[in-house]
Write a structure and sequence with these properties.
The complex is a heterodimer of chains A (about 300) and B (about 260). Chain A is mostly helical and about 300 residues long. In chain A, about 75% of the residues lie in helices and about 0% in strands. Chain A folds into 2 domains: about 30-65, no CATH class; about 75-304, Orthogonal Bundle (MetI-like fold). The chains are: A mainly alpha (about 300), B mainly alpha (about 260).
């Protein structure tokens, strides 16, 4: 190092720590440490009255066990709940894609003047309270509401009994789609906006029809946006607990509800921690997968 | 191309209807003179009157406001610092700590903070909720501030340094005024996120502390009443106002969410 260069470098280093240090310290204490404690808690023994048993038993032995993990991986009930959560999240993602694509395409094609407004209109519901959005579906799907009465009138004309809309998997799925739709539209829009319209013109000149242009040009090019949107919908949908809790029936227990139960009702912290860790691993693996597939997709698109 | 957009328009209008119809119904029924949220009977402001006489609701609103102010204040300061640090030279530790809380399902942060506070014998209440809210708001503020910094001309800082400004002076007189719209937008976002949060609050509030979303939750678990519509309408109005202001200040906010 050149003589004299050390002082400014040291100063820059110190400034970096002054700026980055406090948020890092805060998140180490209130995000990383709790996460670490949860991992440790998963190896502990549940306390007699909930929480955790003392780390050392009266004989002075360390109380650590893999019991909670064994329970998760041996009892098929839990695998079933986990698979059901994956299924619900998957259906949600596909429905969001089907609903969100036209929205994103429309915004991307509209003139500059309307674009920001149309985008804002997609985002605003996301910023309204989460519970209010669930509650809205309680009203819409309620037994006295117009929708349920119409459905039941149709069902009755076929000689079927009343179909409950509320407290059913249908209610849970509709609300899951409703809550997560903006997460699909945003990345899709960001991708579609960048498409070169000349490509579509070229496809038309070569005789491609509307659907062909969509499936062979627009859709393949939009895959990075699709993957990003899918990850943004799938991951939060996987861990949801409030929607099945409020709109679901007795069979709509998802992994989020199971976690809530372990911490607030059964008070079996080690098992609740195991469930949370499984959920975390699934979420992070999916995020990594989406990022990897997205990058490969972009690479292909550039080469093609 | 214009002619063929017919299907696109139909589908997109359907999409917007799907997004807004439920919220419109909540608002309309808040003025409905009927206990049932089923059909329109007549106009009334009774549910709003009842709202302002509901002690539990007012306490919850006060708690939400207090937590929202504290959480947005602290997370704006810490989030701005994080955004600046990420802009200058982002380390893996920094981006993982700042961005993971946004990326993972909320319930995970809720339960891990619950264990953390209970094991430390930290009484669950207003303070634990505020501490938790700060932790998840930092990332949102950092993203908005970083986006703002990315659009800033670095030459301005060099010019300030050449004129003999200390790093603190350069920050105070050059960087801060330039990123201020982003900082304010981040603060409004943080306040909205805090006042709206249900999941993390649910786990970190303990038995005695109630915020607006928790109050709404316990009400709708018992029965659907138009009083919930009334409080929902007011809350939506507040959020709408804050977010429209924030998006005016920082158009990049619309895009920031995609990260």
């Amino acid at each position: 190092m050149r003589p004299g260069a050390g002082a400014p470098a040291r100063e820059a280093q110190r400034n970096r720590w002054l700026v980055g240090g406090p948020p890092v310290a805060y998140l180490l204490v209130f995000f990383a440490a709790p996460a670490l404690i949860m991992v440790l808690a998963s190896f502990r023994i549940p306390g007699e009255f909930g929480g955790l048993a003392p780390l050392f038993d009266p004989a002075g032995e360390v109380n650590l066990t893999l019991e909670a993990y064994t329970r998760f991986f041996t009892d098929p009930v839990y695998a079933e709940v986990f698979l059901k959560s994956v299924l619900y999240a998957l259906v949600t993602t596909l429905a969001c894609l089907a609903l969100g694509y036209p929205l994103a395409a429309l915004i991307a094609r509209s003139g500059k003047r309307h674009r920001d407004l149309l985008l804002l209109l997609v985002i605003l519901p996301f910023w309204s309270n989460f519970l209010i959005r669930i509650y809205a579906w309680m009203i819409l799907l309620g037994p006295q509401a117009a929708l349920a009465r119409t459905v039941n009138a149709i069902a009755a004309s076929f000689g079927a009994g009343p179909v409950p809309l509320l407290f059913s998997p249908f209610a849970v799925l509709v609300c899951l789609v409703y809550v997560h739709l903006p997460f699909m539209v945003l990345p899709l829009y960001a991708n579609l906006e960048k498409h070169d319209p000349a490509l579509l013109d070229a496809a038309r000149d070569l005789g491609a029809g509307g659907w062909q242009r969509f499936w062979r040009v627009t859709f393949p090019l939009s895959l990075p946006g699709v993957y990003a949107g899918a990850a943004l919908v799938f991951i939060p949908a996987l861990g949801i607990f409030a929607i099945p809790d409020i709109l679901g029936g007795p069979d709509d227990t998802l992994i989020g509800n199971l976690i809530k139960q372990q911490f607030l009702e059964t008070r079996d912290w080690p098992f609740g921690s195991v469930l949370s860790i499984v959920l975390t691993v699934a979420a992070l693996a999916l995020a990594a997968l989406a990022a990897w597939v997205g990058r490969r997709g972009v690479g292909r698109g550039v080469r093609a | 191309m214009r002619k063929r957009n017919y299907w696109l328009w139909v589908a997109a209008i359907g999409g917007y209807l799907f997004l807004y119809l439920p919220l419109v119904i909540v608002i309309v029924y808040s003025f409905n003179d009927s206990r049932l949220n089923a059909e329109w009977v007549g106009f009334t402001l009774d549910w709003y009157r009842r709202l302002f006489q509901d002690e539990a609701m007012l306490t919850a609103a006060g708690n939400s406001l207090f937590i929202g102010l504290v959480a947005s204040l602290v997370s704006t300061v810490l989030g701005t610092m994080a955004g600046m640090a990420m802009h200058r030279r982002s380390t893996v530790l920094l981006s993982v700590l700042v961005l993971t809380p946004i990326a993972i399902p909320e319930i995970l942060m809720g339960v891990s903070l619950l264990i953390f506070f209970v094991l430390l014998n930290f009484t669950l209440g207003l303070a634990s909720v505020a501490l938790a809210h700060i932790a998840f708001c930092i990332g949102f503020v950092a993203i908005v501030v970083r986006a703002r910094l990315a659009g800033m001309d670095e030459a301005l800082l060099e010019a300030a340094r050449d004129c003999g400004a200390s790093p603190a002076q350069a920050f105070r007189h050059v960087t801060l005024p330039l990123i201020m719209p982003g900082v304010v937008a981040g603060a409004l976002m943080a306040f909205t996120l805090s006042i709206d949060d249900f999941v993390i609050t649910f786990f970190t509030a303990g038995a005695g502390t109630v915020t607006l979303p928790l109050q709404i939750y316990s009400m709708i678990k018992i029965a659907v009443t138009p009083e919930v519509n009334a409080v929902s309408t007011l809350l939506m109005l507040l959020t709408l106002l804050l977010i429209v202001i924030a998006s005016r200040l920082s158009p990049s906010m619309l895009r920031a969410q995609q990260e």
